[in-house]
């Protein structure tokens, strides 16, 4: 790091300027961040690219009719048969809901065991959500034995928004609890854990304000993105704090002046932290090329969080630490000792000796183990997930959708929307499409005609998606376009597949270039990239086995591999950056082989702690009632632990030892120890 930048938070005077500056930033960030919830978007159509056909239909609907709207469907079911009292109850509900929308029904099912009310809601998203609450309150008083649910597009939107709107508060509390627990276990100090937590909390507050400004500038920010923001800032920020604090503690033993100790700690640990943050940030920004607005929006949101975490941990954290006495480390206070040398004993010294003695057996064995784990990819089901499969539980709209599918045309309440220039052959083209059960009345305007086509199959089923494709083939010659809930799902999944094919190679290339610049070598970056990709594949393999045979999930969304790839590759490279930068430093005086073992010894504890903290933080996502969040929590937590405990601790050091000085090709580092004086010359590793 630049010497002037290092002095800023580590100087006796300027540390106070840093603290005051952060106080001002926090006041601004807190004010803006408090408005973030009001600009998040959770509608499915907000995620689609503008070029998607379903998006084009939404825009064309404005030409046919200017009012926004959405349909709510009230499902009634009595297994023994609908009674006259049930019908009277439904008619009363329809009358009470007249101010919400002109209800149609009750419509009886042919088997006589179910009926439904169709309630069109006119207005924007907030109006729809309030109307659904009103409908649910109105229909909740039903005769005993009559099951009543609110479903349809409006009911599904309401359930989804309720989940996303409840993410931030509970998730933040769980994340904080996890971080506090892990810091207490790591430091075993009643005071020290507060410092990194304050710095991480400050970074999160600032990042919320930045993300709010990005949303106001037009970025699509979803509830999922804001939830991941909290986990990412606290997880990555705590990792950076652990590395800096560990190096600061080491330098406090060598320097009586704590300000000088912090300056040296930042100069030596800072480049690794900055390189790590840059890797994650640039990797996340690669998501900007995604077609899906939700995916492209996640990139800047996550990048903003990482940048704020970097800023806090390289400025605020050092300023706080040097403003506090050494006693903050109590009960194990680092005392100044001119003869101090980092210990060559303990668990990680034993691990280093084990790696040094059996390097080839270790790297071949761990590589084979990871290869075996990748076989689980055959069990990983990736693709469109049904509405029911998206929730861990069964919300009201999902239960109602199942009732409709049992007793009516399964697509009732979620029709395909067909819009085309007015043409006499449009209705015939729709009616002649296999899988279309009913066609509604035409709505015309501005030279366009709109039909709503009820599908014979559930709107989230593969059969319904096939019907949408057939409909599109039928109406495209007439200039028509097909939208609606099923079409939105089709376009979303196809865009997700496209994004994975484009972004994964892009991220690999960008991260590789960063490593080449950082390590000034080709072989070492290739080694790191190869091991991280292998670790990613093994993690997905384990996910396939666990999701299918343990959790019993329907499958993973098409965008799941890309999101997990971004987090595991970018964050996984972090730990290897921490290790290899220290190895390079030690290799300059000890030679490559001894430098690798020395680097593993002195960084093993802190990097493992960082990995465990990050895994535990992401595991907090599992508390949310969304299958996608639980899958992400498991995948990232397991992948980070696998990378930390196996890849970084055994595979990478063993490979590096076996390759030797060739690790730095085409650059060169000394292959034999240099003669040094002073305490740092003494070492016994290797």
Instruction: Bin the strand percentage.
Output: 5-15%
Helix content: 55-70%
The best one-word shape is: elongated
List unreliable stretches of 5+ residues.
670-686
Query: Given the helix and strand composition, which structural class is it?
Result: alpha+beta
Biggest sheet character: 5 strands, antiparallel
Number of strands: 9
User: Distance N terminus to C terminus?
Assistant: 30 Å
Compute the average pLDDT.
Answer: 87
Radius of gyration (Å): 29 Å
Helical region count? Answer: 22
Pfam families: MMPL
Subcellular location: Cell membrane
Keywords: Cell membrane, Membrane, Transmembrane, Transmembrane helix
Membrane topology: Multi-pass membrane protein
């Amino acid at each position: 790091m630049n010497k002037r930048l290092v002095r800023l938070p580590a100087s006796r005077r300027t540390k106070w300027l840093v603290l005051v500056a952060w106080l001002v930033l926090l006041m601004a960030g807190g004010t803006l961040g408090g408005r973030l919830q009001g600009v998040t978007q959770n509608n499915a159509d907000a995620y689609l690219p503008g070029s998607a056909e379903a998006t084009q239909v939404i825009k064309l609907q404005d030409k046919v009719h200017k009012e926004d709207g959405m349909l709510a469907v009230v499902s009634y079911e009595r297994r023994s048969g609908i009674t006259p009292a049930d019908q009277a109850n439904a008619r009363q509900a329809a009358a009470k809901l007249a101010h919400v929308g002109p209800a149609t029904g009750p419509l009886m099912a042919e088997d006589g065991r179910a009926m439904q009310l169709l309630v069109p809601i006119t207005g924007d998203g907030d109006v729809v959500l309030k109307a659904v609450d009103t409908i649910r309150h109105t229909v909740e008083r039903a005769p005993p034995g009559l099951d009543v649910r609110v479903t349809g597009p409006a009911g599904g939107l309401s359930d989804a928004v309720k989940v996303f709107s409840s993410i931030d508060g509970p998730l933040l509390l769980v994340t904080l609890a996890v971080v506090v627990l892990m810091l207490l276990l790591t430091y075993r100090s009643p005071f020290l854990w507060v410092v990194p937590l304050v710095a991480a909390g400050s970074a999160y507050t600032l990042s919320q304000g930045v993300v709010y400004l990005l949303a106001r500038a037009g970025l699509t920010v979803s509830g999922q993105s804001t939830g991941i923001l909290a986990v990412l800032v606290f997880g990555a920020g705590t990792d950076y704090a652990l590395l800096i604090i560990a190096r600061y503690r080491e330098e406090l033993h060598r320097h009586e002046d704590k300000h000088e100790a912090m300056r040296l700690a930042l100069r030596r640990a800072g480049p690794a932290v900055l390189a790590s943050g840059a890797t994650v940030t640039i990797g996340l920004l690669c998501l900007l090329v995604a077609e899906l607005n939700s995916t492209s929006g996640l990139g800047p949101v996550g990048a903003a969080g990482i940048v704020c975490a970097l800023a806090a941990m390289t400025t605020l954290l050092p300023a706080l630490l040097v403003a506090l006495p050494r006693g903050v480390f109590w009960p194990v206070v680092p005392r100044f000792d001119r003869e101090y040398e980092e210990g060559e004993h303990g668990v990680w010294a034993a691990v280093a000796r084990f790696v040094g003695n059996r390097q080839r057996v270790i790297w071949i064995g761990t590589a084979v183990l990871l290869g075996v784990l990748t076989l689980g990819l055959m069990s990983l089901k990736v693709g469109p997930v049904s509405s029911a499969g998206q929730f861990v539980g069964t919300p009201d709209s999902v239960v109602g959708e199942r009732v409709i599918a049992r007793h009516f045309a399964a697509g009732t309440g979620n029709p395909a929307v067909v819009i085309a220039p007015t043409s006499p052959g449009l209705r015939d083209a729709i009616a002649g499409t296999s899988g279309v059960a009913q066609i509604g009345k035409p709505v015309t305007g501005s030279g366009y005609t709109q039909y709503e086509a009820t599908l014979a199959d559930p709107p989230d089923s593969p059969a319904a998606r096939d019907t949408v494709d057939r409909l599109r083939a039928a109406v495209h010659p007439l200039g028509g376009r097909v939208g609606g809930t099923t079409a939105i799902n089709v376009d979303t999944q196809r865009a997700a597949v496209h994004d994975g094919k484009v972004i994964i190679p892009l991220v690999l290339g960008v991260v590789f270039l960063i490593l080449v610049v950082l390590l000034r070598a080709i072989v070492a970056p290739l080694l790191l990239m190869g091991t991280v990709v292998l670790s990613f594949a093994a993690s997905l393999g384990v996910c396939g086995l666990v999701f299918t045979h343990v959790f019993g999930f329907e499958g993973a969304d098409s965008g799941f591999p890309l999101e997990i790839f971004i987090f595991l590759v970018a964050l996984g490279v972090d730990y290897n950056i921490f290790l290899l930068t220290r190895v390079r430093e030690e290799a300059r005086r000890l030679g490559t082989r001894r430098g690798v073992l020395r680097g593993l010894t002195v960084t093993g504890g802190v990097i493992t702690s960082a990995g465990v903290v990050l895994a535990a933080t992401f595991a907090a996502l599992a508390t949310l009632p969304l299958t996608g969040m639980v899958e992400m929590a498991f995948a990232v937590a397991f992948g980070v632990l696998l990378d930390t405990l196996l890849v970084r601790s055994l595979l990478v050091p063993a490979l590096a030892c076996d390759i030797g000085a060739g690790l730095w090709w085409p650059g060169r580092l000394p292959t034999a120890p240099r003669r040094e004086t002073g305490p740092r010359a003494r070492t016994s590793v290797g």
